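Can anyone check this?
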Amino acid sequence: MKSRILSALIASAFCVIIPASTAAAQRSDSSRYDGQALRYESSWGSARIIRGADGPLVGTAGWFRSFDVEKVVAGSPAARAEARAYKSNSFRASLVETLGATTTVVGVVLAANGSNNAATPILIIGGVGAMVGGAQLFHTAFSALSRSLWWYNRDVVRASLSPPPAPVAVPTSQSEQGKRNEHPE
């Protein structure tokens, strides 16, 4: 009688322990992806690149602030290409925004000094136009940054989590299955 109870307790313990360990293994795979994936949060023209859901800050990007995104996403060729696009567009945007802001300020200062100069409205309008163009370049740069992080997450992080699928054998005319398909009897 006691041996049956003991056997039942051991069997029930195995029924509880084995599914729990399988669930823990699945959670560790999920948390590994959650801990390695990159994301960015943006506010007022700058972006913070963060690793994982609540992970460390990898870098900050924005107006004249950049870090080597290409180095961070080096494991994926597509991510590196988008990181190069981000870098070039971000530099151009910073340059155009600065020139536009400077031109606008000069135009406003000339207008405030009572200078009835024909160049004053041209400077203001041109400066604002350059700032709008710079904002468009920033938008293009941050879109490339987003694509770069997406490619990184797709190619590098997910690839390390799951093994590649096993190849499927396709019958050829040289195999027995292929010969039976060619000459049905």
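Reply from J.R.: I decoded it. The chain is about 70% helix and 10% strand.
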